[in-house]
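subagent[fold] <- orchestrator: predict structure for attached chain, return C-alpha coordinates only, no commentary.
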Amino acid sequence: MNWIAYAVTAWLAFGLELGLRDGLEIGSSGIAPSFVVVLLVVVALQAPVMTALWASFIAGLLLDLTNLVVDPASDIAHISIGPHALGCLLAGYTVVTMRALVMRRSVLTMVFLSFIAAALLGIVTTALFSIRLLYDPNLAFAPAAALGRGLASAAYTAGLSAVVGPLLMWSSPLFSFHTNDPRHRWRSI
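subagent[fold] -> orchestrator:
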Protein backbone atom coordinates (compact mmCIF):
# COMPACT_ATOMS: atom_id res chain seq x y z
CA MET A 1 0.00 0.00 0.00
CA ASN A 2 1.15 3.51 -0.73
CA TRP A 3 1.38 5.06 2.75
CA ILE A 4 1.81 8.59 1.40
CA ALA A 5 -1.54 8.35 -0.41
CA TYR A 6 -3.06 6.94 2.79
CA ALA A 7 -1.60 9.79 4.87
CA VAL A 8 -2.93 12.45 2.50
CA THR A 9 -6.37 10.82 2.31
CA ALA A 10 -6.48 10.36 6.09
CA TRP A 11 -5.54 14.01 6.54
CA LEU A 12 -8.42 15.00 4.25
CA ALA A 13 -10.81 12.64 6.06
CA PHE A 14 -9.83 14.05 9.45
CA GLY A 15 -10.15 17.59 8.11
CA LEU A 16 -13.64 16.87 6.79
CA GLU A 17 -14.64 15.10 10.00
CA LEU A 18 -13.42 17.86 12.31
CA GLY A 19 -14.40 20.74 10.03
CA LEU A 20 -17.88 19.55 9.12
CA ARG A 21 -18.83 17.93 12.43
CA ASP A 22 -20.83 20.94 13.65
CA GLY A 23 -22.51 21.41 10.26
CA LEU A 24 -23.46 17.75 9.82
CA GLU A 25 -24.43 17.15 13.44
CA ILE A 26 -28.12 16.48 14.01
CA GLY A 27 -29.15 19.34 16.30
CA SER A 28 -26.96 19.36 19.39
CA SER A 29 -27.23 15.62 19.95
CA GLY A 30 -23.62 14.74 19.12
CA ILE A 31 -24.77 12.46 16.29
CA ALA A 32 -22.48 13.05 13.31
CA PRO A 33 -21.00 10.89 10.54
CA SER A 34 -17.41 9.73 10.41
CA PHE A 35 -15.36 10.21 7.25
CA VAL A 36 -12.50 8.33 8.91
CA VAL A 37 -14.57 5.16 9.33
CA VAL A 38 -15.47 5.20 5.64
CA LEU A 39 -11.76 5.46 4.77
CA LEU A 40 -11.02 2.65 7.23
CA VAL A 41 -13.58 0.40 5.50
CA VAL A 42 -12.19 1.12 2.01
CA VAL A 43 -8.64 0.34 3.13
CA ALA A 44 -9.68 -2.78 5.06
CA LEU A 45 -11.63 -4.06 2.06
CA GLN A 46 -8.66 -3.92 -0.29
CA ALA A 47 -5.32 -3.81 1.55
CA PRO A 48 -3.35 -6.81 2.79
CA VAL A 49 -4.41 -7.94 6.25
CA MET A 50 -1.54 -6.53 8.33
CA THR A 51 -1.49 -3.31 6.34
CA ALA A 52 -5.23 -2.87 6.88
CA LEU A 53 -4.86 -3.49 10.61
CA TRP A 54 -2.00 -1.02 10.95
CA ALA A 55 -3.92 1.59 8.96
CA SER A 56 -6.97 1.03 11.19
CA PHE A 57 -4.90 1.34 14.35
CA ILE A 58 -3.26 4.55 13.12
CA ALA A 59 -6.67 6.04 12.24
CA GLY A 60 -7.97 5.13 15.71
CA LEU A 61 -4.91 6.61 17.38
CA LEU A 62 -5.43 9.85 15.48
CA LEU A 63 -9.12 9.82 16.51
CA ASP A 64 -7.98 9.48 20.13
CA LEU A 65 -5.65 12.44 19.72
CA THR A 66 -8.41 14.64 18.29
CA ASN A 67 -11.14 13.73 20.82
CA LEU A 68 -10.65 15.45 24.13
CA VAL A 69 -12.19 14.25 27.40
CA VAL A 70 -13.10 17.22 29.61
CA ASP A 71 -13.00 16.86 33.39
CA PRO A 72 -15.93 18.99 34.66
CA ALA A 73 -14.48 19.39 38.16
CA SER A 74 -11.26 21.03 37.03
CA ASP A 75 -12.38 22.06 33.52
CA ILE A 76 -9.21 20.49 32.12
CA ALA A 77 -9.22 18.57 28.84
CA HIS A 78 -7.44 15.22 28.73
CA ILE A 79 -6.37 13.10 25.80
CA SER A 80 -7.39 9.49 26.32
CA ILE A 81 -5.30 7.25 24.07
CA GLY A 82 -6.68 3.78 23.50
CA PRO A 83 -10.48 3.60 23.13
CA HIS A 84 -10.70 4.73 19.51
CA ALA A 85 -7.47 2.94 18.58
CA LEU A 86 -8.79 -0.38 19.87
CA GLY A 87 -12.24 0.28 18.40
CA CYS A 88 -10.82 1.03 14.95
CA LEU A 89 -8.55 -2.00 15.19
CA LEU A 90 -11.56 -4.24 15.94
CA ALA A 91 -13.57 -2.55 13.17
CA GLY A 92 -10.73 -3.03 10.67
CA TYR A 93 -10.31 -6.67 11.68
CA THR A 94 -14.04 -7.26 11.30
CA VAL A 95 -14.04 -5.78 7.80
CA VAL A 96 -10.96 -7.83 6.87
CA THR A 97 -12.65 -11.05 8.00
CA MET A 98 -15.92 -10.18 6.24
CA ARG A 99 -14.40 -9.12 2.93
CA ALA A 100 -14.29 -12.70 1.66
CA LEU A 101 -18.07 -12.85 2.02
CA VAL A 102 -19.04 -9.65 0.21
CA MET A 103 -18.67 -8.00 -3.18
CA ARG A 104 -15.89 -5.50 -2.53
CA ARG A 105 -16.90 -2.88 -5.08
CA SER A 106 -20.59 -2.70 -4.23
CA VAL A 107 -22.09 0.44 -2.72
CA LEU A 108 -24.34 -1.72 -0.54
CA THR A 109 -21.24 -3.45 0.81
CA MET A 110 -19.77 -0.06 1.72
CA VAL A 111 -22.97 0.98 3.47
CA PHE A 112 -23.29 -2.28 5.40
CA LEU A 113 -19.64 -2.52 6.45
CA SER A 114 -19.47 1.17 7.35
CA PHE A 115 -22.43 0.69 9.68
CA ILE A 116 -20.82 -2.40 11.25
CA ALA A 117 -17.43 -0.68 11.64
CA ALA A 118 -18.87 2.53 13.12
CA ALA A 119 -21.15 0.56 15.46
CA LEU A 120 -18.20 -1.51 16.71
CA LEU A 121 -16.20 1.67 17.21
CA GLY A 122 -19.06 3.16 19.25
CA ILE A 123 -19.50 -0.01 21.32
CA VAL A 124 -15.79 -0.39 22.11
CA THR A 125 -15.28 3.26 23.04
CA THR A 126 -18.38 3.20 25.25
CA ALA A 127 -17.22 0.01 26.95
CA LEU A 128 -13.71 1.32 27.59
CA PHE A 129 -14.92 4.67 28.90
CA SER A 130 -17.41 2.80 31.12
CA ILE A 131 -14.54 0.79 32.57
CA ARG A 132 -12.64 4.02 33.15
CA LEU A 133 -15.71 5.43 34.89
CA LEU A 134 -15.33 2.68 37.53
CA TYR A 135 -12.02 4.08 38.78
CA ASP A 136 -12.37 7.74 37.70
CA PRO A 137 -15.69 9.04 39.07
CA ASN A 138 -14.89 12.60 37.92
CA LEU A 139 -15.26 11.57 34.30
CA ALA A 140 -18.33 13.19 32.77
CA PHE A 141 -19.61 10.21 30.82
CA ALA A 142 -23.08 8.72 30.48
CA PRO A 143 -22.67 5.22 28.98
CA ALA A 144 -26.26 4.76 27.76
CA ALA A 145 -26.35 8.15 26.04
CA ALA A 146 -22.88 7.57 24.53
CA LEU A 147 -23.91 4.17 23.18
CA GLY A 148 -27.08 5.64 21.66
CA ARG A 149 -25.06 8.44 20.03
CA GLY A 150 -22.54 5.90 18.76
CA LEU A 151 -25.15 3.68 17.14
CA ALA A 152 -27.05 6.62 15.65
CA SER A 153 -23.75 7.99 14.30
CA ALA A 154 -23.10 4.55 12.80
CA ALA A 155 -26.34 4.77 10.85
CA TYR A 156 -25.43 8.31 9.75
CA THR A 157 -21.95 7.10 8.71
CA ALA A 158 -23.54 4.33 6.65
CA GLY A 159 -25.56 6.94 4.77
CA LEU A 160 -22.44 9.04 4.21
CA SER A 161 -20.58 6.01 2.89
CA ALA A 162 -23.07 5.70 0.04
CA VAL A 163 -21.67 9.00 -1.27
CA VAL A 164 -18.05 9.05 -0.09
CA GLY A 165 -17.34 5.31 -0.44
CA PRO A 166 -17.61 5.17 -4.25
CA LEU A 167 -15.31 8.20 -4.52
CA LEU A 168 -12.71 6.48 -2.37
CA MET A 169 -13.12 3.22 -4.28
CA TRP A 170 -12.66 5.11 -7.54
CA SER A 171 -9.40 6.57 -6.22
CA SER A 172 -8.13 3.21 -4.89
CA PRO A 173 -5.46 2.85 -7.64
CA LEU A 174 -3.62 5.66 -5.86
CA PHE A 175 -3.27 3.39 -2.82
CA SER A 176 -1.57 0.59 -4.83
CA PHE A 177 -3.56 -2.27 -3.36
CA HIS A 178 -2.29 -4.81 -5.97
CA THR A 179 -0.98 -7.51 -3.67
CA ASN A 180 -2.11 -10.69 -5.44
CA ASP A 181 0.31 -10.16 -8.31
CA PRO A 182 3.89 -11.20 -7.31
CA ARG A 183 5.28 -8.30 -9.36
CA HIS A 184 3.55 -5.88 -6.97
CA ARG A 185 4.44 -7.70 -3.74
CA TRP A 186 6.97 -5.03 -2.71
CA ARG A 187 4.22 -2.37 -2.59
CA SER A 188 2.42 -4.14 0.26
CA ILE A 189 5.08 -3.31 2.82
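orchestrator: received. Logging for downstream: The CA atoms of residues 45 and 100 lie 9 Å apart. The two ends are 7 Å apart (CA to CA).
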